[in-house]
Design a protein that fits this description.
heterodimer, A: about 110 residues, mainly beta, B: globular
């Protein structure tokens, strides 16, 4: 399978809480990226972490990468209703981008 | 940020007809474009990678005669679903990468194809 695996598949939290989603992958990578998709739309790039990095921050987003375990996590702090969307990790082993199975996040106002 | 325009947004067609989907990079040159297919509430499946001026590279299991990809210019790639059948109904999304140094993808808004 070209996909990585993400968990949980679905996550529902209250506004203000933190949301954590995980991504596991199979191949060696150059970098790993996280994207967001609103229903029925294209994806929007959120953050990129390179294979030699372990942690990266961008605003309310925090990404970690453990290449020995082939896993990554995305933390969204102080969630807002507008964060409701599906989140996908993308692994980039070479020239291709392969997306994980996604986590559907619902933030309840 | 860079903008990728994809159209049509949705199309309904009869079984046996061909459908063309266009993907344009509006304010940058896209040396590489990617075509994905997405089923409801599922992930994106990479169908093919297209580089300007060369033949597309298809992923295993994707019929290249069924899904024709043309990347004739640095700003335009097209996906033609030939002789469409109901099982081809899906959400198709294109994405583009600017040059070879920009590592992130810019996505079109997707095309919902329904084959009757």
């Amino acid at each position: 399978s070209q996909q990585g695996e993400e968990d949980p598949q679905a996550l529902s939290i209250q506004e203000g809480e933190n949301a954590t989603m995980n991504c596991s992958y199979k191949t060696s990578i150059n970098n790993l990226q996280w994207y967001r998709q609103n229903s029925g739309r294209g994806l929007v790039h959120l953050i990129l972490i390179r294979s030699n990095e372990r942690e990266k921050h961008s605003g309310r987003l925090r990404v970690t990468l453990d290449t020995s375990k082939k896993s990554s996590s995305l933390l969204i702090t102080a969630s807002r209703a507008a964060d409701t969307a599906s989140y996908f990790c993308a692994t980039v082993p070479g020239n291709q981008f392969y997306f994980g199975t996604g986590t559907s996040l619902t933030v309840i106002p | 940020g860079a903008v990728v325009s994809q159209h049509p947004s949705w199309v309904i067609c009869k079984s046996g007809t061909s459908v063309k989907i266009e993907c344009r990079s509006l304010d940058f040159q896209a040396t590489t474009m990617f075509w994905y297919r997405q089923f409801p509430k599922q992930s994106l499946m990479l169908m093919a990678t297209s580089n300007e001026g060369s033949k597309a590279t298809y992923e295993q299991g994707v019929e290249k005669d069924k899904f024709l990809i043309n990347h004739a210019s640095l700003t335009l790639s097209t996906l033609t679903v030939t002789s469409a059948h109901p099982e081809d109904s899906s959400f198709y999304i294109c994405s583009a990468r600017e040059g070879t140094l920009n590592e992130k993808l810019f996505f079109g808004s997707g095309t919902q194809l329904s084959v009757l």
